[in-house]
């Protein structure tokens, strides 16, 4: 760990600096001096990455200051009640799923769960069909009555041979052929990423499986559940330790030189940390249109995808996802955007190259640890971010205990 950062109160004070200066002046002239707030950790961002680390470090006796420039905790997983009293996800639907018992057990300390298996339908050729593509999708779409075995042969007959699967287009056409690719993936990917699937890493469409059975669950993970009282309540429980102080509506730059800390954990965009010195890393953003309707339900399932029509990619209905009973219902439409809050790192080889340059800068900062989706420029789900944060905690802990071997093992886990 490094020494606390020096303070440099001068002209041009920010509000936080002014406050600290006033408090210091007051302490000198009026009240007996209060002990300085000396934090072991300054954590930037109160999403999954920051909150897991705050909780773990606080539980091990460290004093933590966690700041977020937004007005709430939870990062993109934040949920709240809208004007109608429906529990919504302002940053788009967040469905929890994981194969990691460790991650599930860890989060279970802070929430009870409601079992929930997400289902998605795609609006294709005027029909609502199951997505990911399964036996019913193909039979319904083409008016067939294939069995699972016959569907395997069907896919083999329409699949296009691809010598080396490199792009998102390669992944799909080599598995289910061009027609299904065009109906389900091409338009959706173009809308979502502003790029043709032939220009995107294979990893993007490889996330979506193809099934020959009738399983219509969107995810196949062992653990699929939603926090019973919502994500925000779970985050509140994680951050409830007296060792944790929370500052909202605060960009870390406002306080970084004012409040003493020993080590920083940064979970914001890595390029912003280094003032975009190599240029901006490309992120994809979204605009959300939230609506409330006087109906019990609007959609047959949690999400309906629109691969080919309209400017939005999908519509999601929260009551399916949260299980809330209410006489009205709230939905969200997602409109992909090039500009706006950074949501999705864009997986392309040249972006990975650019990230490597920022990663080298990050590696040269022993006083700062970079964790999370934006700080490590990875297309991570919530459970992967939790796993990454838990591994980071083990590494920090081992390093503090002077056990480099332990820290290496934690790095690999
Ligand atoms: C539309 C959408 C849908 C998703 N759906 C799912 C899903 O269904 N299932 C799933 O598992 N995952 C989903 N994800 C992914 C999930 O949101 C992320 O894995 C998770 O939120 C990442 O957590 P994080 O802590 O790394 O980042 P974030 O949640 O982005 O938190 C980072 C925080 O840092 C703060 N910050 C940044 N810069 C500063 C600064 N300078 N000063 C102070 N604070 C700062 C930000 O305000 C933010 O609150 C979805 C993501 C999106 C965008």
UniProtKB/TrEMBL annotation:
It comes from the Bacteria. InterPro entries: UDP-GALP_mutase (IPR004379), UDP-GalPyranose_mutase_C (IPR015899). Its EC number is 5.4.99.9. Residues 183-379 form the UDP-galactopyranose mutase C-terminal domain. The keyword Heme does not apply. The keyword Transmembrane helix does not apply. Keywords: FAD, Flavoprotein, Isomerase, Plasmid. Its cofactor is FAD. GO terms for cellular component: cytosol. GO terms for molecular function: flavin adenine dinucleotide binding; UDP-galactopyranose mutase activity. Belongs to the UDP-galactopyranose/dTDP-fucopyranose mutase family. This is UDP-galactopyranose mutase.
